[in-house]
Design a protein that fits this description.
Elements (H helix, E strand, L loop, with lengths): L12 H10 L1 E4 L5 H13 L8 E2 L2 E3 L8 E4 L5 H4 L8 H8 L13 E11 L4 E4 L13 E2 L2 E2 L4 E6 L10 E3 L30 E3 L6 E5 L4 E3 L7 E10 L13 H6 L2 H7 L8
Antiparallel strand pairs: 1-12, 2-3, 3-4, 4-5, 5-14, 6-13, 7-8, 9-12, 9-14, 10-11, 10-13
Length: 275
């Protein structure tokens, strides 16, 4: 199916206010119906694989079974390539990562250090993690001298409806600015407990095609899925162009050749030159 033409979305004063206040934004209808169809149709073709195995350039990532199934490098699959610089959020990601007209843009405005598809079934979840109290560079939230400077901006795409019982992403609004660790964090069993019982955490319900934009410094995780069926999301993580890949996965040569200059720069800001 052909994708409909979408205009670039730029951040507004309202976006800035609520992103600064809450640490996240919901971007309604970020994906077209055609894009959703193509993405889900591709997912339906993925054969059963073992951890560490690959299929058409995407990798079944070894991880705790409670988290569901992750396929890293999902942008290797043609239906997901447009997500690299998608008009619904690319200018938003640049704006909140920040650094325009500074050294941070030496190799380009932003860089994708990780991108993956996550499939989660009944009983699966991920514990609450991160928060402003950690203060680390990779996930930091910062506003200084009239601009945002965030270490990592995540775009989480709902590929099907995610409502009550579906294992929705949960966040603690405002926790990206917290100076203190949540008191319940010390009692959570990472990888086993979901965030359903953490005071202050809320579920973020999304319709298929919506995107959740959030700074990684916000405390986030997911509720345990209690409904039958499968939650389908994918995540693209954007940071400054001087960053490095989170894991050992790298874009393939065939992908780089297929991308336009803007997309290639985001995937590989500083390519190694042949001597």
């Amino acid at each position: 199916m052909k994708n409909s033409i979408q205009e670039r979305r730029f951040p507004t004063a309202k976006d800035d206010y609520f992103f600064d206040l809450r640490g996240y934004l919901i971007l309604k209808n970020a994906l077209s119906k055609e894009e959703l169809y193509d993405m889900n149709a591709f997912i339906d073709t993925i054969p059963e694989t073992k951890e560490g195995e690959s299929y058409k350039g995407i990798y079944h990532q070894p991880q705790h079974a409670k988290f569901g199934t992750n396929y890293q490098q999902i942008y290797e699959a043609p239906p997901f390539r447009k997500c690299i610089s998608h008009p619904s959020w690319i200018e938003m990601a640049k704006h909140y990562v920040g650094g325009k007209d500074t050294f941070d843009w030496h190799h380009g405005p932003i860089f994708i250090d990780e991108n993956f598809l996550n499939l989660r079934s009944e009983g699966q979840a991920i514990s609450l993690h991160s928060g402003g109290h950690e203060g680390i560079m990779r996930t930091q939230f910062r506003y200084y001298n009239g601009g945002f400077h965030c270490g990592q901006i995540n775009i989480l795409l709902a590929l099907n409806n995610i409502g009550p019982g579906d294992g929705a992403t949960m966040v603690i609004p405002g926790s990206h600015k917290s100076n203190f660790e949540h008191p319940q964090f010390k009692t959570l069993n990472y990888g086993k407990d979901s965030v359903d019982v953490v005071e202050g955490a809320i579920e973020v319900h999304l319709k298929a095609g919506d995107a959740l934009l959030f700074v990684d410094a916000i405390s986030h995780g997911s509720a345990a899925r209690t409904n039958s069926g499968q939650r389908r999301i994918c995540v693209f993580r954007y940071g400054p162009s001087w960053g490095n890949f989170r894991f050992h996965y790298r874009p393939s040569g065939s992908l780089l050749e297929a991308l336009n200059p803007e997309e290639r720069q985001i995937v590989s800001p500083a390519p190694i030159k042949k001597s």
